[in-house]
Fold this protein.
Amino acid sequence: MVARTAVQLSNAERALAAYEAMQRWLYVADGRSLYRESHPWSGNPYAYVWPFSRALLGTSGLAGMPGGAAYAHDVADRLAGLERYWNDRARVPAYASYPMPPLGQGGDRYYDDNVWLALTFVQLQRMGLVSSLQAATQLLRFGLTGWDREPRHPQPGGVFWVEQGVGYGRDNHDRGTGATAGNAELGYLLGTREASDEMLGWVQRSVDASGVGSGPFFNVVRLDGTVDTNVWSYNQGVMLGTHLARYRLTSEAADLRLAEEIARQTLRTFGDFRQHPPSFNAMCFQSFLHLSSITSDDGLRAAMRGAADRFADWAWATETGARDPQTNLFFFDDAGRPALGKQAARLQDQGALVQLYALLAWDPDDYVKLG
């Protein structure tokens, strides 16, 4: 019998191999359920909450694979680690960007980080891995405090990227597509339509290149009224997810049609997705897979799945220079370019690819749990 090559591994096998590498090289075995930011490691002893959230999503992806129930214990360990970031000292509690004392100094609280975690809690509840949506509801309360209420600002409204008036929020006043659409999506999932409609409307008015709600969607609006016109894959994914969440709540066919059109423009805009970080692409592909469980357009379903499969195959192939076949760690730079031998392997990329391979191994009937 001829042994299979690494390229011939199934997505489930890839997910497990990438996860084992994440646990071996990036997990901190000190009983605190935390990770390092990268391997080789330098700097802070623990990862920031953004890459940690990618490890949580990767682990939850494993738990959702056929036969993956054993990873529910690992999800519980991630949730225990996440509590190290919880800042309950503020008026509206939410997660800090770094572990709180005594392990770390805490840090700024980002509205996008917190809404990604809230959406993860919704997914975990649908998977039966958490019992309630209480945490997601609390994080929506925090997200709503980030809404710009100053009518004199250019393009008034939108959710700020970072909590204002403290730390980085003294200088950065960007209102982001991700933070705003993410909180709109969360609100729809939790049944708060009025606030979500307002947030969705702001994104459509302020950062939609098409003018008709289908994108592509730009990144942020600055306080001076200028727009960061970077088009990132995750922003398209979160807007797609927002319309699916609204469709779930209202059953309005227009939302499903617009979600389908966002998916089509995203496929046209990003092509092979190779110029964007795995952590951004995984968020987009998750929305693709969710839409694939709802749309009746077989061609669109095949195109979305094909895009995710091709990126996953490309990232795994050793000739790309992204994956070290000796460690199964992935090396990408901030622009999504393979960087093996040029920098450390980062938790945010490793966790995102664990998630992607795991989701591609899910029973398609379970994709409805993604939103």
Summary: Residues 298-316 form the longest helix (19 residues). DSSP finds twelve helices and eleven strands in the chain. The two ends are 43 Å apart (CA to CA). The chain has a mean pLDDT of 96.
